[in-house]
User: What shape does this take?
Amino acid sequence: MEKIFAVLGALSGFVAVAAGAFGAHVLRQRLSPAHLAVFETAARYEMYHALALIGVALALNRRPGAALGVAGWCFVAGTVFFCGSLYVLALTGIAWLGAITPLGGVCFLTGWLALAWGVLSSRA
Assistant: This one.
């Protein structure tokens, strides 16, 4: 499972950098300042959680455990729901997508708690 999280983390980091560059160079003239800020928030949180996924992969390599797997999948789900909904909201202006964003935030929070529990409860 650590390999899956490492690859997903690396790919998510790639997307975050590409989104950041796209926002800075292409969207700056096309989006309102409010929508651009939403897009930038999505890219920033995606990068944070790309790094977190790589951290989970490293932790799983040293301390295998179910809680670490939960953390990784929560970070993946959070990226899809939180970052994905913000990207689409910023690009389309579809306001109801904002209702999905908190679900992703809860996934991120759960992932961080699971990561802490997974490290604390390991025997290594």
In short: The chain has a mean pLDDT of 95. The radius of gyration is 15 Å.
